[in-house]
Write a sequence for this structure.
């Protein structure tokens, strides 16, 4: 994906973190030359304007050279670092190939000498935006604060506690321990970040409404069985493994894709390209406006429990403003749920180059007729907005019926 | 655990699920979900954050008792036998 091999050395390139990304700014390296990395390790923090993204490497080896310094903005495809096998590393690696697209300026290679190892190998600490702000105000060094938040993130209270405890030992020592390339000056933050997100949404949605002939379908179903199943499951699950309705919705959408695969994929150069898997973008709205849409990959092949864990972690990351590379890999279909806000129905706007978006509203108790009897039931409305260039109402209906059937008659319920 | 300690612990947990929110301006008697725009996923993450700090397994049926900061403090005090 973002690397390829050239002899014994492979290149780690600036990945495309979303269809709308042309450039990325390296904020901070989490590895130094000489470090051994394994597939899936987070190696660099990249700013895409929309979010800070912890980028994973999909190859194992030893970091040979880091070619792009923190603070530099480079096009997608630029070689960021070279990776070797870690064995016969005597010969110097060949100079990096020029990036596919014209780079603004050739990034100056950093000295390859390994940085001194210390207790704080990375210059940047995982912390919440509020914690950073408060740390700045109180003059607290985040590297000295033990994080108690999600995935060990430093929270505002950790900072306040650290400030109350007074300055820690020898900040000079910490300076010495920090690797040579420190973190880049923080780019867009807070209001600027939201403005950047807003711009991206505007571009995407404008293009969508200009280019995509949407058609809309809606259906409702009785959620009694699904809710009863959820309740029973949650009674026996420990709090950390508890479920919400959301993963059931995602699983149901995967059933819809199985029934009508042409709703999942991309419309590129006047033709439809089916998705290589069921990768669902999940809309997460941010406080203060804007939204992020992390991708859950291979939803059709995962269990409800796995989907729940992934969704929970992705939501926490979105709230903290730092996503993972896998979160922003390209989705084949998007799902939006406005149930928590109280609206009963939402018709989404398709996110190009995707060809459909599924919307779920709030579960409401409504009169419901079944087998000649009317009763009060928890009812959910599901909608589909789809691209008429790719599919017709008939196929869309087949898709949406399959979603509703899967959701309202969950397996095992 | 004292009432103040429980309150501090709850605020810390809230800060974790809603890092962008300003907790200083929180009205302890008002609905947390409304004040902090907490959705069902945030609420679950909050319950898990409280669980990690106290070991309390708060059942889903008790979620309404966590509605405001005051009610959550009262609930946890009873629950932890403080």
């Amino acid at each position: 994906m973002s690397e390829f091999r050239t002899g014994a050395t492979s290149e780690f390139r600036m990945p495309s973190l979303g269809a709308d990304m042309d450039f990325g700014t390296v904020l901070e390296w989490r590895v130094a030359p000489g470090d051994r990395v394994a597939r899936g390790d987070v190696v660099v923090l990249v700013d895409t304007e929309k979010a800070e993204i912890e980028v994973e490497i999909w190859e194992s080896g030893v970091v040979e050279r880091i070619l792009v310094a923190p603070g530099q903005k480079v096009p997608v495809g630029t070689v960021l670092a070279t990776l070797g096998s870690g064995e016969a590393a005597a010969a110097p690696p060949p100079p990096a190939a020029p990036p596919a697209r014209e780079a603004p300026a050739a990034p100056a290679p950093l000295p390859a000498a390994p940085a001194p190892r210390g207790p704080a190998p990375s210059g940047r600490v995982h912390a919440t935006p509020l914690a950073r702000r408060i740390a700045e105000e109180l003059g607290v060094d985040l590297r000295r604060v033990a994080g108690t938040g999600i995935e060990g993130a430093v929270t505002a209270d950790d900072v306040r506690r650290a400030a109350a405890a007074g300055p820690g030992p020898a900040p000079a020592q910490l300076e010495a321990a920090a690797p040579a390339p420190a973190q880049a000056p923080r780019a867009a933050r807070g209001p600027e970040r939201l403005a950047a997100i807003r711009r991206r949404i505007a571009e995407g949605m404008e293009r969508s409404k200009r280019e995509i002939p949407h058609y809309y379908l809606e259906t409702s179903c009785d959620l009694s069985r699904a809710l009863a199943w959820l309740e029973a499951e949650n009674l026996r699950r420990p709090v950390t493994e508890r479920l919400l309705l959301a993963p059931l919705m995602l699983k149901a959408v995967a059933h819809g894709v199985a029934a009508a695969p042409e709703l999942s994929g991309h419309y590129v150069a006047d033709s439809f390209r089916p998705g290589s898997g069921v990768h669902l973008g999940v809309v997460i709205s941010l406080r203060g406006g804007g939204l992020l849409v992390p991708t859950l990959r291979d939803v059709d092949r995962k269990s409800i429990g796995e989907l729940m864990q992934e969704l929970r972690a992705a939501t926490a990351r979105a709230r903290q403003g730092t996503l993972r590379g896998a979160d922003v890999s390209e989705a084949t279909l998007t799902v939006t749920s406005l149930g928590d806000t109280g609206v009963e129905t939402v018709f989404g706007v398709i996110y190009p180059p995707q060809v459909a978006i599924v919307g779920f509203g709030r579960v409401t108790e409504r009169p419901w007729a079944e087998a000649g009897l009317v009763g009060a039931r928890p009812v959910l409305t599901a909608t589909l907005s789809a691209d008429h260039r790719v599919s017709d109402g008939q196929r869309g209906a087949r898709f949406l019926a399959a979603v509703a059937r899967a959701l309202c008659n969950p397996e095992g319920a | 655990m004292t009432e103040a300690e429980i309150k501090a612990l709850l605020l810390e947990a809230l800060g974790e699920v809603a890092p962008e929110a300003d907790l200083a301006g929180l009205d302890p008697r008002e609905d947390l979900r409304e004040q902090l725009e907490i959705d069902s996923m945030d609420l679950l993450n909050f319950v898990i954050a409280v669980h990690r700090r106290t070991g309390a397994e708060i059942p889903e049926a008790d979620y309404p008792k966590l509605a405001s900061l005051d009610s959550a403090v009262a609930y946890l005090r009873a629950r932890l036998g403080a």
User: Anything to note?
Assistant: The first helix of chain B runs from residue 3 to 17.
